[in-house]
Amino acid sequence: MMNMERRNGEDKPVIRKALVELDGKPFKFFEANREEWAVKTSFTYPGAIQYYGPAEVCDLTTRTLALEKA
Predict the structure, then answer these.
(1) Secondary structure (H, E, C), 1-68
(2) What whole-number distance in Å separates Cα of residue 60 and Cα of residue 62?
(3) Using alpha carbons only, what angle is made at residue 12 by residues 9 and 18, rounded to the nearest 5 degrees?
(4) Cβ atoms of residues 47 and 37 within 8 Å
(5) Which of 23, 35, 38, 54 has a CA between 20 and 30 Å from the CA of residue 4?
(6) What is the reported pLDDT for 33?
(7) pLDDT above 90: residue 3
(8) Confidence of residue 1 (pLDDT cuts 50, 70, 90)
């Protein structure tokens, strides 16, 4: 999340802007499915955030992060 940018002649750590990367895997996944999703009710409802309980519930990564790793 952190990038180094030169500001006022010095390198400073800053949080990278959260722009959509059109060549990234998450957007490519959306692009491949958007026509189907436009006409169907296709969504994932993960439910509330789980802080305790079984690992298969608590340790899930977000869909976007899972796509970036793939």
Answers:
(1) CEEEEEECCEEEEEECCCCCCCCCHHHHHHHHHHHHHHHCCCCCCCCCCCCCCCHHHHCCCCHHHHHH
(2) 7
(3) 120
(4) no
(5) 23
(6) 92
(7) no
(8) low
